[in-house]
Design goal:
It is elongated and about 50 Å long. The chain has 3 helices and no strands. It is 76% helix and 0% strand. It has helices spanning 3-33, 37-45, 47-57.
Length: 67
């Protein structure tokens, strides 16, 4: 694989990780705001619970709005 393609792939990975961190930060803010610390702990350890909370808070679709 040429270096340019490898660099593009790595840039995509970095962008994806950053987006994931941003989404999780929004979820954490929402859960803390709503005093849902037990669900926050669950979200840290349970991928399915985390997905359900993303859906509940509509996190993926409202990144530009204050949650």
């Amino acid at each position: 694989m040429c270096k340019a393609i490898a660099d593009m792939i790595e840039d995509g990975r970095i962008e994806g990780r950053t987006e994931g961190e941003d989404l999780f930060a929004v979820l954490v803010k929402n859960l803390l705001r709503d005093s849902r610390t037990e669900e926050l702990m669950l979200a840290l350890n349970d991928k399915e619970a985390r997905k359900a909370l993303y859906v509940e808070y509509d996190v993926k679709y409202n990144m530009n709005e204050e949650q």
